Amino acid sequence: MNANIPHPGEAAGANETTPILEDITCHSGGPGPDVMNAGSLTGDAVVNAAGESLGKIDAIMIDVRSGRVAYAVLSFGGFLGVGNKLFAIPWSALALDAIHKRFVFDVSRERLEAAPGFDKSHWPSMADPAWAKEIHDYYEAEPYWDDPLSTSGG
Q1: What are the PRC-barrel domain coordinates in residue numbering (predicted)?
Q2: N or C: which end of the chain has fewer CB within 10 A?
Q3: C-alpha span between 51 and 62 (Å, rounded)
């Protein structure tokens, strides 16, 4: 893994919240990596800063009122999709590795395994402010609702 990977949340520009790790000479035209179809990100691999696999993106959750991406749902563990545990990861805690078409999440496997998670049949109420604060606090991520970009019309 590249030692120059910024810590998630450390954006290159003042208005960015999710860093994009890319070689600017490899743009292929079309959408991405700055604006992408959320469906095209589902199934993307997630690795930690050490390059260890942490799973795959299962879903991308949108805060409909603000129009912001709130969470990526990470599927981790299990075997062939059976027994996987799901984790809501604050969007700002991820960095997009555009070259390798994956996400980097700066967390150890052990910390992820100990994180609050859920299964496919029992999703949490992601609109519950107490639950949302717990998730953001656990990953030490700035809540998207505190980001000035999350206000509509801004």
Answers
A1: 34-111
A2: C
A3: 27
